[in-house]
Design brief:
single chain, alpha+beta, 6-stranded antiparallel beta sheet, MoaC, lyase, EC 4.6.1.17, MoaC_sf, cyclic pyranopterin monophosphate synthase activity
């Protein structure tokens, strides 16, 4: 397989997408931050010194997704149609899982936007809680699924990457994740 961001002289280059079709593209990525019980309680109860940790992380994840092309050198600027962020606390493990769904109509995918959103959201949680716990660990940042584009659909199953042969199946999976997140948003106000 050829690396697309290197030219014939092995120098970095931005991929030419001018001949690609505009299609609907979606990507969902997630990651985890693990922390002490005290930091977890501060995050969930919004008692951190810097304000509401989870709400700030959601805003940061959205901003991070939107700024991806400014942070990752070979990423194209995209007109993003939707960004949805979900946060799932795990009281047993004192961890928070943050997920980002990004959607656009474009010539290139939104995987990097989803991954960047997750990274910035988790880093924001770390920043807001570091006065309580400097030993927090950010882990498992990965692409969970994508749809659209030349490379087809992708879905991670039990930490193993697999390709979906049916775009309908993958789209349904992404839509159910987004719908589930949207339902949670409605409950939370």
């Amino acid at each position: 397989m050829e690396l697309t961001h290197l030219n014939k002289q092995n120098n970095p280059t931005m991929v030419d997408v001018s001949n690609k079709d505009i299609t609907t593209r979606e990507a969902y990525a997630s990651g985890v931050i693990s922390m002490s019980e005290q930091a977890f309680e501060a995050a969930i109860n919004h008692t951190g010194k810097k304000g509401s940790i989870t709400q700030t992380a959601i805003i940061a994840a959205i901003m991070g997704s939107k700024k991806t092309s400014e942070l990752i050198p070979m990423c194209h600027p995209l007109m993003i149609n939707k960004i949805n962020v979900d946060i799932t606390p795990n009281p047993t493990k004192h961890s928070i899982t943050l997920g980002v769904l990004v959607k656009c109509e474009g010539k290139t995918g939104v995987e990097m936007e989803a991954l960047t959103g997750v990274s910035i959201g988790l880093l924001t949680i770390y920043d807001m809680l570091k006065a309580i716990d400097k030993s927090m660990v950010i882990s498992d940042i990965c692409l969970q699924s994508k749809s659209g584009g030349k490379s087809g659909d992708y879905k991670r199953i039990h930490s193993k990457a697999t390709r979906k042969s049916s775009k309908k199946d993958s789209k349904t999976s992404l839509e159910s994740k987004a719908s589930s997140s949207h339902s949670e948003d409605s409950k939370n106000g």
